[in-house]
Amino acid sequence: MYVLAINGSPRKGGNTENMLRKVLAPLDEAGWKTELYQLGGEPMRGCIACMKCWENKNNKCILDTDKLNEVFEKMLRADAVVIGTPTYFADVSTEIKALIDRAGMVGLANGGVLGGKIGAGVVAVRRGGGIHAFDSINHMFQISRMIIPGSTYWNLGYGLHKEEVLNDTEGVANMTNLGENIAWLGKAIKPHMDSFPKVENLVAEG
Ligand SMILES: Cc1cc2nc3c(=O)[nH]c(=O)nc-3n(C[C@H](O)[C@H](O)[C@H](O)COP(=O)(O)O)c2cc1C
């Protein structure tokens, strides 16, 4: 079992990364292969709506000038994808928005190839707007037919400065619980992932 955690914060060692590490710890204990991928700070660009992914159907974005295809290839191999972001003006970071739009579209263009995988969003927030960022991530998971496990609260952790989120006891516990729930869910559905329904009738507008 393989879980890919994507850190959308450009601030390495910051609150988002610390929360993702809390999610990964129980998965590591349960014997999963865990990977923390640093996407924040990379020069990611947005979708250019060329729709070439719908013509090429090769699990790739035609814009091969940044990390999107590398991340998407990892997403394809993962059983669970955890997307972490800081809250920026009540939404996800720019890097995560680029990932959502382009990985989401390439996935749909290729027959909803992310379907049946586990997806979880994790959000670092100082004060407000975290739920909106959380929703932005979950919208991509849901249209991609991914399975979203819950936790003991919505997956937010509170803090401004680096590592401050570790003082948010409830937020940290929520991350640990999320990791445990992903481990349980993954074990339960792994034997059935290959039989997840295929779809033929996806439309290009997403
Ligand atoms: C450009 C920018 C915009 C931000 N917008 C918000 C916001 O809308 N709401 C909020 O509560 N915090 C906001 N913050 C604070 C961060 O979300 C918060 O410090 C978070 O813990 C950072 O996570 P990190 O350490 O992983 O980068 C913003 C920070 C930056 C740099």
Would you give an account of this structure?
- The chain is of the alpha/beta class and 206 residues long.
- Helix content is 39%, strand content 15%.
- The chain has 6 helices and 5 strands, in the order E-H-E-H-H-E-H-E-H-E-H.
- It has a 5-stranded parallel beta sheet with strand order 2-1-3-4-5, sandwiched between helices.
- Helix 4 links the parallel strand 3 and strand 4.
- Helix 1 packs across helix 6, helix 3 packs across helix 4 and helix 4 runs parallel beside helix 5.
- The longest helix has 21 residues.
- It is globular and about 50 Å long.
- The mean pLDDT is 97.
- Bound molecules: flavin mononucleotide.
- Flavin mononucleotide binds next to helix 1 and strand 4.
**Level of helix content?**
25-40%
- What percent strand? 5-15%
Unreliable sequence segments: none
- Class based on secondary structure composition and strand pairing: alpha/beta
Using only CA atoms, what is the Rg? 16 Å
List the secondary-structure elements in sequence, H or E. EHEHHEHEHEH
Ions and ligands:
flavin mononucleotide
Give the strand order, joined by hyphens, for the main sheet: 2-1-3-4-5
How confident overall, as mean pLDDT?
A: 97
Number of helices: 6
Number of strands: 5
Overall 3D form: globular
User: What is the makeup of the main sheet?
Assistant: 5 strands, parallel
Instruction: Report, as a whole number of angstroms, the end-to-end distance.
Output: 29 Å
